[in-house]
């Protein structure tokens, strides 16, 4: 995959940089435009998709995919296989072409966009985009904190086409589940997983320095704790704890003495302080979490929930078809074409169930194979702590997001998942060049 990677430094901003920034900013703020300005979401998505296609076309005409030749070739073969499978579904099973087209869009558009960004970005582009992501993340966390302090019927907490408070997502009575700039809670949940990776990576290096760098690190740590805490999502709270544990585990070999150990101690101190501040400032939210976790433990089968999370509901097994029900049938667009409504879940509520429901046997292969690949990346990173900590953290984020709804589910989660994949390729690209001295200046 990496035999021809080259990373060119240059000043100024390139056309690919503007295309990627356009896609990123539209994807992050399109929900806000719909909720508070009334801008059509469909138009935002069309503009974003056109920019993504433009970047892919740019990478093709300038032969940029040769930089990651092996990865591009494998994914090209996979893309052709899935499209042929979906095409047979359309021909022999009567799956509408609109559903088939939406499936191609959700499965592959932003996958290839991520690879295109990785192969065309320069080191300057990566650094500037990294800083942009941090600034956007801080803004969204600030908005989420404000939303959590406001009553559910406040304009900042309204949902598109909401009629009354009953259509707003609540953690408990009077306590809202924040959505940030997104139209659905899952978008915010996926985003803070991404932000956690970027924020911790940024916080580690300058944490012991003085002045602006140190202040920025403290702000990022506090913002990260608050981002998880105000989410109103049990999975986000649990994920936050797991993420910090993984972060600590990756540094297990450097805990004894040295500056890394001091950084981690200071990181832990500020984490605890931020948690204490949260308990003091948001007592109602803390009480709501206690009630929610207690209620869930009394009424939910934990093992059953884990099985559903990783495999899918029972109806996925009951309705299984070897060839699947149609590429794109699990998307909101596909569901509307097939049932006339986007209420409920046509194939499954879980990501795995949707993939298996759409693609049958091929879906089963995909679900297990991609999980094994990401676990391999995490293990590979674990063996080389000093050089691959960012890769390991990124792989952990992607492993978490894999079991939300990135491929055939909610629009924002699909987008953020592939933004994470793009960042993982950025880190891999820089790490490979640093390890092999192949950077060109």
Report what the structure shows.
With about 450 residues, the protein is mainly alpha-helical. The protein has one domain. Helix content is about 70%, strand content about 0%. It has 17 helices and 2 strands. It has helices at about 15-35, 40-60, 70-95, 95-120, 125-150, 185-205, 210-230, 235-250, 260-280, 285-300, 300-310, 315-320, 330-340, 350-360, 360-380, 385-400, 410-435, and strands at about 170, 175. The chain has a two-stranded antiparallel ribbon. Helix 6 runs antiparallel to helix 16 (about 385-400) and helix 6 packs parallel to helix 17 (about 410-435). It is globular.
Described by strand count, sense and barrel closure, the largest sheet is: 2 strands, antiparallel
Structural domains: how many: 1
> Which percent bin holds the helix content?
over 70%
Our count of helices gives: 17
Essential attributes:
441 residues, mainly alpha, two-stranded antiparallel sheet, 2 strands, 71% helix, 1% strand, globular
How are the SSEs ordered, and which strands pair?
Elements: H1 15-37, H2 41-61, H3 69-93, H4 97-120, H5 123-149, E1 170-172, E2 175-176, H6 185-204, H7 212-229, H8 234-250, H9 258-281, H10 283-299, H11 302-310, H12 314-318, H13 332-339, H14 351-359, H15 361-382, H16 385-402, H17 411-436
Antiparallel strand pairs: 1-2
